């Protein structure tokens, strides 16, 4: 090989090396963006897991609350004939009747 051929081959190798360097720089840049996206997605996965756990706890609490509501509704239905308002009203009626004068006493002119 003569000097001219070696010079052309060297120039071709340098050109190819420069192309490879440019391609490598682009690949590394893309890799950096991919790594940043991976970190972002990992953060979202962690946040989603936290939200999922919170939602699971909230749903469990809601289930307990619904069960308690049904229990209380059952008690209310069972005890509706024993409402606390009725005895109080009946008690007031008894007190009122006891406090008013008897008709027999009124017919006598109030003399007992």
Short description:
The protein is mainly alpha-helical. Helix content is 86%, strand content 0%.
What average pLDDT do the residues reach?
86
Question: How many structural domains in the coordinates?
Answer: 1
Largest sheet: none
Number of extended strands? 0
Ranges where pLDDT stays below 50 over 5 or more residues in a row are none
The chain-level structural class is mainly alpha
Distance between the termini: 152 Å
Protein architecture, described:
With 112 residues, the chain is mainly α. It contains three helices and no strands. The mean pLDDT is 86.
Features:
112 residues, mainly alpha, 3 helices
Question: How is this fold's topology laid out?
Answer:
Blueprint: H1 3-78, H2 85-99, H3 103-107
